[in-house]
Write a structure and sequence with these properties.
This protein is mainly alpha-helical. It has 7 helices and no strands.
Length: 154
């Protein structure tokens, strides 16, 4: 299967209102991750043990790709309502950044966790990076030679 043809097909896919499920799913995962207590408790699920092994510096660094993915997903999903790319990009960046602020506020109520302006800054940087990557990759895919046939993928 030709990767460029597949990428071109999905770049031209029209988002539908149901596609809002992807950014909402990412938001749910981020909420669950920020609900993990900062210090191990006796009655914690065994799965939480995996998160305690990740050093805090790595956890902070993961904010950028997580919020980049969230902003990218929102930018794509908002295409069902907004046809102007700049409006989608700004909307997606605002939603992802606002969710980063909300998530830090939520995290301040979790035992052993605290809210951090550094994390908010990393969330916003990730959202901006996600929008930039979406625009950059989108421009590359739109410039693919139109002679590529996507009909054979169906």
């Amino acid at each position: 299967m030709n990767f460029t043809a597949l990428a071109a097909r999905y770049a031209r896919a029209t988002p539908r209102r149901l596609h809002i499920a992807l950014p909402l799913l990412i938001m749910g995962v981020l909420y669950w991750l920020s609900s993990v207590p900062g210090t191990p408790l006796a009655d914690d699920p065994a799965l939480y043990g995996l998160f305690y092994w990740v050093p805090p510096s790595a956890q902070n660094a993961l904010h950028v790709p997580a919020y980049a993915a969230l902003a990218w997903a929102w930018c794509w999903a908002l295409g069902a309502w907004m046809h102007v790319l700049a409006a989608r990009a700004i909307g997606a960046c605002v939603i992802a950044s606002a969710y980063g602020i909300f998530d830090e506020w939520h995290q301040s109520f979790v035992p052993g966790r605290y809210a951090s302006l550094t994390d908010v800054a990393l969330d916003v940087a990730g959202a901006v990076l996600g929008i930039w990557l979406a625009a950059w990759i989108g421009s590359k895919i739109r410039n693919i030679n139109p002679q590529i046939s996507t009909d054979s993928l169906e």
